[in-house]
């Protein structure tokens, strides 16, 4: 069965892996919002980031294909989301809200204390 949310998140993940700003902006809604939780331990924006271009820049900075990282589509809060790991240790988990073919909101957890359950191995 086709799941539009899953398909949109997979397109988003592919654009992240390529660090493709134009592709990210195309999958992000014009008024997309991203909120980061660094827990005061990891640098992150102090408030929500708004707009497709600004969210795309944030996502590339946080999620975009660094050497030694693996970006996977996984269940996050019961729906397709993203997990970014470096040497099997989670460094970010992203929940996404979608509307049709666009991502409208992202919640990006960067706080190491909240990511321990996402480590592998």
From TrEMBL:
<dbReference type="GO" id="GO:0016987">
    <property type="term" value="F:sigma factor activity"/>
</dbReference>
<protein>
    <recommendedName>
        <fullName>Siderophore-interacting protein</fullName>
    </recommendedName>
</protein>
<dbReference type="InterPro" id="IPR032710">
    <property type="entry name" value="NTF2-like_dom_sf"/>
</dbReference>
<dbReference type="InterPro" id="IPR052704">
    <property type="entry name" value="ECF_Sigma-70_Domain"/>
</dbReference>
